[in-house]
Amino acid sequence: MTSNTETPIDIEYLKGWEGKTIQLEDGLSPFPAQALAGVFNRDERPHPGGALPPCWQWLYFLDTPSGAGTGADGHPATGGFLPPSPLPRRMWAAGKFSILRPLELGQTAQKTSRIASVDLKAGKSGVLLFVNVEHDIAQAGQLCVRETQNIVYREMPQSAAPLPPGESAPEDKTDIGAQWRETITPDPVMLFRYSALTYNSHRIHYDRDYAVNTEFYPALVVHGPLLASLLAESASRQFPGERIDTFSFRAQRPTFDDQPFQVCGRRDGDKLTLWTVDHEGFVGMKASATLTSAASSNSEGEPS
């Protein structure tokens, strides 16, 4: 199959990466978590022996390629663990995870990653390559986090174009509207710090000239994982006596650093519906989560 710019895509060759695994080990140093707490303006900083908050596992087990192993967009070059996609534009489109036991800071953990599937599909914007990666994180011989990451590759745009129509956010007065909302004002410092803490050198998050003139975004792009983390952070503030044990998210529309946006949520029983809203009233990311009592978790011998 070829894309709309005639990039050849040998899907059978790329499917040869299915089942490929890699194992990594990390000491879960408290510093990255303490630094992210600063980004999120937390009064209390994580400490050794404390539980790692949801989404913060993305601070660890990082791919740290050399300059020669880095693509022109700042992403690690493909063809190692990830298949060598001929479609250059990469995004983390969606994901989900379950926290079976909270990870404990300062204790060594092991992560096993596996390429679950590689698929080619035709979308409204052209051909898309989907790569699904499964991650298991264990500590002290026990599985703690089970996660699936959905990566999408697409063609690089050839010129600027308007963003596609977005989904309007639900009104607060309806039974699907927000029960709480917080305003976030992104800026290049926030985006740089999150890029540094996650070793994410994709230039759309810190190089304004590249973002605007090469990938044709109107401004710097707020990281999808950062949006997901802000949603989880907001939920944790709302319900401090409980913890998130499942979380899933899907990107709907890019969010940029030139305007404030809101993180919103509502609760129904132990289930949370979460979303972000940009300054035009469109949904940027949707997420869902379930809560469990933090006290009951601790009574089962899990770290607090």
Automatic annotation (TrEMBL):
Listed transmembrane segments: none
Domain of life, source organism: Bacteria
PANTHER family on file: HYDROXYACYL-THIOESTER DEHYDRATASE TYPE 2, MITOCHONDRIAL (PTHR28152:SF1)
Protein name per the record: Acyl-CoA dehydrogenase
